[in-house]
Amino acid sequence: MLVSIGVTGTATGGRDDTELKENQQISDNYRNADINGMKKLAKTQLAIPKMEAFRGNTITAETRDIWRPRETHGDRGTQTHWMANGEGNWLIGEAMGKAMLELIEATKLHRVEN
User: Fold this and answer.
1) pTM for the full model?
2) 17, 24 Cβ separation under 8 angstroms
3) CB-neighbour burial class of residue 113 (10 A; exposed 0-12, middle 13-18, buried 19+)
4) In angstroms, rounded to a whole number, what is the distance separating the alpha carbons of residues 33 and 87?
5) pLDDT at residue 47 above 70?
6) Closest to 46 in 3D by CA, of 36, 32, 56, 58
């Protein structure tokens, strides 16, 4: 079975935004979020395809930079994942789909070479 993993964000606005302090209020959705825990999760997600048991059948899709601020993208008064932002959800799905196509192609090439 082939697997595409969307790399989780830190609720801070992207993969490189590391200046927020742990437990700083970010949004209603992530009040008192454990930023360091989210960073550890992303690091683990990125490591999975390199592990012997998953090498060749798993790929990660970078989705951390897809984060859209509540003030400009969403805030429909809900406490939902990604602030009920359709664009963000679409882009995450697209990134994971493209990664899966890349993995399928790599798998085909590997079968031809062997």
Assistant:
1) 0.73
2) no
3) exposed
4) 23
5) yes
6) 58
Buried b (16+ CB within 10 A) or exposed e, 1-33: eeebbbbebbbbbebeeeeeeeeeebbebbeeb
> Above 90 in pLDDT, residue 3?
yes
pLDDT level of residue 98 (50, 70, 90 thresholds): very high
**pLDDT of amino acid 66:** 81
- Euclidean distance between CA atoms 101 and 98, whole angstroms: 5
DSSP-derived secondary structure for the chain: --EEEEPP--SSSSTT---SPTT----STTTT--HHHHHHHHHHHHHGGGSTTTTTTEEEE--GGG---TTTS---S---GGGG-HHHHHHHHHHHHHHHHHHHHHHHHHHHH-
Which residue from 82, 80, 78, 53 is spatially nearest to 67, judged by alpha carbons?
82
